[in-house]
Amino acid sequence: MQIAVTFRHMESSDAIRSYVEEKLSRVKKYIDEPIDAQVVLSVQKKINNRAEVTMVAKGLTMKSTESKDDMYAAIDLMVDKIERQLKRYKDKLKKHKGGNGIQRRLEKTIFSASSVDEESSEPEIIRSHSFSVKPMSVEEAVMQMDLLNKEFLVFTDDNSAEMNVVYRRKDGNYGLIVPQGS
To answer: Which CATH architecture has domain 104-177?
Structure first.
C-alpha cells in the first residue's frame, strides 16, 4: 500500500504520519490489489482538524472526509468510514458475479459557453479528459457513484454490454438511463 500524507496549515509530524499509515493498513484485508492512498490533514480556523483520504484500488475510487476538534479522532473516524465503505463493497462483490464485458474508453469534453452562444463555427474546448468505463451491474454502478460522491456515473452494463447512465434524483432516489435500439 502506498500512502502519501500531506499537511496543510499545520506542522508536519512524523507521529501523525505513522499513525495514519498504521490505521490505513487495516483496510488491506478488504482488497488484495495494490492500493494508492492520498491523505490530506489540515487545520481550519485553528480548531477544526480535518482528515481526508482518497483511495484507488482495483479500479475503485473511495473518498472519506471527517472533521473533529482532535486530529487523531478525525483520523480514526475517516479510517472507520473508509473501512465501512470497503466492507460494503466487498460484500456486494461476493453477491454479484462480474461479467466479462468489454471495457470501453470515453472522452469527456468541456466547451466554453460563450463559444456556443455566439454561434461560432467551432465551439472552444476548455478541457478534455478520457477514461475507461468498466462493465458492471446497476447495483455496482450506484455503489461506485456513492463512493465517489458523484451525481451521475456512465458505465457499461455487464449483461447487455450497452452504455448506461445512473444518476441521483432530487428526491434522493436513483435514475437509470438505458439506450433503446433502433
So the answer is: 2-Layer Sandwich (3.30)
Q: How far apart are CA 3 and CA 40, in angstroms?
A: 11
pLDDT, one tens digit per residue, over 113-164 is: 554 455 556 667 677 766 666 788 888 888 888 777 788 888 888 888 788 8
Helices (H), ranges, the chain = 14-24, 71-95, 113-117, 138-148
Within 10 A of 155 (CB to CB), how many other CB atoms are there?
Answer: 23
CA distances 107 to 161, 165, 167, Å, are 18, 15, 19
- The 10s digit of each residue's pLDDT in 97-116 is 554 545 555 565 665 555 44
DSSP one-letter code for 12:
-
Interacting residues of 126 by C-beta distance below 8 A, sequence separation 6+: 110, 111, 112
CATH architecture, domain defined by 2-95: 2-Layer Sandwich (3.30)
